[in-house]
Backbone:
């Protein structure tokens, strides 16, 4: 089915004319049900691991990954995802883009040749969960790069997986709780997309987590010209020169004893907060209506960053699209007027049967909310993946441009994002 895009002004929702559409897409769900649900974990004998499902990132395997090095010889697509409070990054593979998907290396589907569970397991370092990103002899218990967890905040989540064609490797951006008491985003590499663990924990030589945080939690990356931009939780924008990102991948620098840790990306501030201030809506922001983590991509004109996300405090929380443009001040971006609505809950698996209530920060299930959008470009078609009923399942839809603009965005240098 197709949905008309809407303009949101404060708490009012007004229809947009064809000339005013933000994002200019119609949305076609590909199925009446999710592509990932708790049923995958039920079949694997680990139902509790499927009680929370979020953060999808879909890729198409490049030809240089041999059939014998794949999750299955027939596998052509890998869908990475997480549990909001989980200790490992999940992955399910499929021969076709829309599935059916098969859970990889978890529960009864454990793969003996791969360590731990999923593709990156925080529990391999023992209890409490920890991953020593630099050798333990180089750090004390209280400093250095240590991903670890204790208590309800401990987790590893929000994978975004890219393909580095130049080096023939997979890149995974994710966030985790750390020894600094902060949730930060990191980058891990793998030769086959199946094992991002540290070499000391059974990972591949020369791969694993690079020992310097990229930025705040939920960082999603996109390339625009000679710069790499990142969008983090709450709408904070980050920037790094593409050449510096390439150098980071080549040198794999480890962070020393720094408190607080020095991020790889430079924070540019929050264009959504600035827009709220300019509109006199900081009171609503302070009460909790703020952007949740989302997806960032560049548009073909080379001047616009498109943001697809949802907002904490919306009733119901749904998927929106907005545009960021340079403001004229160096390093400052502004939010274009108007926010287009892409998708809201319409099926039971998306939470349609639950009450319409303002959403809250943090994890949620059994709610009428859509969250965690990501995009995937395949054969010239643009696909949207998202979490339904809060964080209970993952669905897929196609975004169909309503104008002649190609959905592909700018060509990436060095790093080819198949999910784009």
Residues:
């Amino acid at each position: 089915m197709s949905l008309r895009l809407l303009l949101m002004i404060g708490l009012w929702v007004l229809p947009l004319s064809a000339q005013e559409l933000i994002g200019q897409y119609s949305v076609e769900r590909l199925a009446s049900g999710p592509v990932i649900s708790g049923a995958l974990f039920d079949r694997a004998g680990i139902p509790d691991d499927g009680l929370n499902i979020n953060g999808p990132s879909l890729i198409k395997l490049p030809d240089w990954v041999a059939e014998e090095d794949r999750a299955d010889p027939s596998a052509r697509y890998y869908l990475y995802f997480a549990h909001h409070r989980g200790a490992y990054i999940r992955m399910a593979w499929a021969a076709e883009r829309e599935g059916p998907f098969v859970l990889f290396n978890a529960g009864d589907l454990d793969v003996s040749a791969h360590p731990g569970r999923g593709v990156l397991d925080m529990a391999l370092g023992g209890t409490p969960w920890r991953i020593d990103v630099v050798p333990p002899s180089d750090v004390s218990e209280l400093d250095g790069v240590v991903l670890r967890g204790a208590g309800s905040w401990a987790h590893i989540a929000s994978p975004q997986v890219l393909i580095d064609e130049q080096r023939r490797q997979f890149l995974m951006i994710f966030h985790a709780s750390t020894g600094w008491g902060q949730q930060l985003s990191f980058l891990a590499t793998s030769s086959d997309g199946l094992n991002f663990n540290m070499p000391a924990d059974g990972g591949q030589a020369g791969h694993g987590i690079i020992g310097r945080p990229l930025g705040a939690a939920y960082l999603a990356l996109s390339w625009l010209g000679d710069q790499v931009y990142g969008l983090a939780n709450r709408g904070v924008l980050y920037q790094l020169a593409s050449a510096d990102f390439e150098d980071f991948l080549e040198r794999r620098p480890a962070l020393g004893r720094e408190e607080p840790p020095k991020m790889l990306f430079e924070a540019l501030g929050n264009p959504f907060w600035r827009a709220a201030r300019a509109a006199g809506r900081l009171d609503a922001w302070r009460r909790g209506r703020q952007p949740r983590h989302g997806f960032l991509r560049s548009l073909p004109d080379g001047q616009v960053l498109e943001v697809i996300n949802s907002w904490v405090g919306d009733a119901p929380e749904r998927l929106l699209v907005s545009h960021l443009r340079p403001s004229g001040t160096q390093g400052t971006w502004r939010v274009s007027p108007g926010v287009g609505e892409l998708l809201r809950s319409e099926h039971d698996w998306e939470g349609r049967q639950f009450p319409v209530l303002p959403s809250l920060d943090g994890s949620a299930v059994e709610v009428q909310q859509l969250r965690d959008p990501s995009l995937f470009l395949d054969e010239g078609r643009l696909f949207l993946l998202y979490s339904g009923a809060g964080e209970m399942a993952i669905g897929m839809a196609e975004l169909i441009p309503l104008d002649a603009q190609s959905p592909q965005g700018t060509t990436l240098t060095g790093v080819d994002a198949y999910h784009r």
Summary: Confidence is low (pLDDT under 50) at residues 1-22, 135-144, 405-420. The first helix runs from residue 38 to 43. The two ends are 23 Å apart (CA to CA).
